[in-house]
Design goal:
With 299 residues, the protein is an alpha+beta fold. The chain contains seven helices and six strands. It has helices at residues 2-105, 152-164, 178-192, 202-210, 232-240, 269-278, 287-291; strands spanning 130-132, 146-148, 170-173, 213-217, 246-248, 263-266. The strands form two sheets. A four-stranded antiparallel sheet has the order 3-4-6-5. It has a two-stranded antiparallel ribbon with strand order 1-2. The structure holds zinc ion (ZN).
Length: 299
């Protein structure tokens, strides 16, 4: 009985042992398989991370290259812009110069010339164009006077501005031809003999022959005399005439001609303004400097 039980136990034990061995073998085979797969995965992950790293590096390099190219492109664009800006400026300067030269070539050089007993306007000189002055601007509306057509709007504006300031500024005389002047002068000569030169000498006359000079007065001081300097109209002129391009040709104490507070010459706004600012008389400024204003005399 005992041996049979033992036999039975042995059989169970052996069977279990065999089963364990079988299971163990299977498990270890499965383990190897899993292990192999894990190794494969790790390797593939490693490979992927290498690939990713390489890709990131390549991407970085690509970005750097793009940035460099962008920089170069931006730089060449900047240079391009600079260049076209430079060309544009040069073009403007050149067209400005051409414009100024064209204007200058079309502007009568006599308009800013200084006249003396030596330098005289040609007796055949006639302004390029003359316009009749509005009667209401004249001291004596029964007369008719002409002025250089390009100066007429400046004179008109000046007289009307004086009127707006409550003053009564009037034009006594403007353009005078060589023949008119000869008649005036011989008239004076009849009256005053050779002393006429003191009243009607050469410089002032030349400016009238240009058509750009005005003799101004006011009904209270109708005669062209030094007393005009006491009129409020004269004071107004000394403060405002430059705004309309007019200057007093022969101020008190000038070395060229007798004092003529009534005689105003158009020289253009820029020159009139600069003479006033610098405190220089027209006849004291070198002709070369004066000529620089010629191209823009009517601006
Ligand atoms: Zn005059």
């Amino acid at each position: 009985m005992v041996s049979r039980r033992l036999n039975y136990r042995r059989v169970v034990f052996l069977t279990a042992f065999a089963a364990l061995i079988t299971l163990g073998g299977g498990a270890s085979a499965y383990g190897a398989l899993v292990y192999h797969e894990l190794v494969e995965r790790v390797r593939s992950l490693e490979e992927r991370s290498v690939i990713l790293e390489e890709t990131a590096l390549a991407e970085r390099r690509l970005n750097e290259e793009l940035q460099r190219m962008n920089g170069e492109l931006a730089e060449s664009l900047r240079l391009e812009k600079e260049w076209s800006g430079f060309i544009g400026t040069q073009f403007k300067v050149l067209s400005g110069t051409v414009g100024a030269l064209t204007k200058l070539s079309q502007t009568d050089r006599e308009l800013l010339a200084k006249y003396s007993k030596v330098y005289f306007l040609n007796e055949n000189y006639v302004p390029e164009s003359l316009s009749g002055l509005d009667k209401e601007l004249l001291l004596n509306p029964a007369n008719s006077h002409q002025i250089h057509s390009r100066v007429e709007p400046f004179a008109d504006e000046m007289i009307r501005a004086a009127k707006s300031a409550g003053l009564d500024l009037r034009i006594v005389s403007a353009y005078r031809s060589f023949d008119d002047q000869a008649a005036v002068k011989s008239g004076y000569k009849v009256l005053y003999g050779s002393g006429a030169n003191r009243f009607s000498a050469d410089q002032g006359y030349s400016e009238h022959q240009l058509g750009t000079a005005l003799d101004l007065a006011t009904p209270k001081f109708p005669n062209l005399s030094a007393s005009f300097e006491t009129a409020p109209e004269y004071k107004w002129l000394t403060e405002n005439a430059h705004l309309y391009g007019f200057i007093l040709s022969y101020p008190k104490g000038n070395y060229f001609y007798q004092y003529e507070p009534w005689h105003w010459r158009f020289v253009g706004k820029a020159l009139a303004n600069d003479l006033r600012e610098k405190g220089i008389r027209f006849y004291d400024m070198p002709q070369r400097e004066i000529d620089a204003y010629l191209a823009n005399i009517f601006d």
